[in-house]
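Exercise: predict the structure of this protein bound to benzoic acid.
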Amino acid sequence: MTLHLGSIAPDFTQESTEGTIKFHEWLGGKWAVLFSHPKDFTPVCTTELGRVSKLKGEFEKRNCKVIALSVDDVQSHKKWIGDIEETQSTKMNFPILGDADRRVSKLYDMIHPEANDTLTVRSVFVIDGNKKIRLMLTYPASTGRNFDELLRTIDSLQLTDNYSVATPADWKDGQDCVIVPSLQDPEVLKAKFPKGFTVVKPYLRMTPQPNK
Ligand code: BEZ
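Solution:
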C-alpha cells in the first residue's frame, strides 16, 4: 500500500520498550510523530533519541505523542537506552518499537532497498488527531534530523487547520502568515483578519499570525 499525505496511518500491534502497542489505540485521538532509526547502537540515532526525549515537553504542548522504531528487538533497545541516557544526559521518556520482523517498517515503507536492503531509512510521519498522515520526511541514514524543524511544521499544520492561512518560507511561530488565495470576499477577509493585511500582490497577502 502506498502511503500519501491524507492516508490513514496504518494500524499495527507491535512490542515496544513500554510494552505492547496497539497503534490506533495508543494514538488516542492525539497527534503523533512516528520516526524510524536504521539500527540500535549507532551514533546518529543515539543523538536523535536523546534530543527527542529532551523535547518531549514541546511535543506535549502541541498535543503530540512521539514513538520511535528501530529494526532490532526490544531487548536490544533496552540495552541501548542505557547508552542513550548516559551519553546524551537524558532520561528516555517515549517508546521505541521493536521491529525485528520488519512488520511496521514494511507497512510504512521505511526500507528503501536501493539505499540498504535491511536497514530502515530515517522516516518521519506526522499523524493528526484523526489518524491521518499530514507530513512525511525521508532522510538518509547518515544525516541526523532537525527536530526543531519538525516542531515548526507541526505548528504550521495546526495553525493552518484552524485559520485560512498558509505559512511562508522559513516561517516560525509568531511571524506573519499568508492568506489563502481562495479567500477573496472583502467582508469575509475583514471578519477573519481583524488585525488587517497587506496586499503585496493580489495573490500574496500577508497578515499577522491570527492566533497570537
Ligand atoms: C547512525 O545512526 O549513526 C548511522 C546508522 C546507519 C548508518 C550510518 C549511521
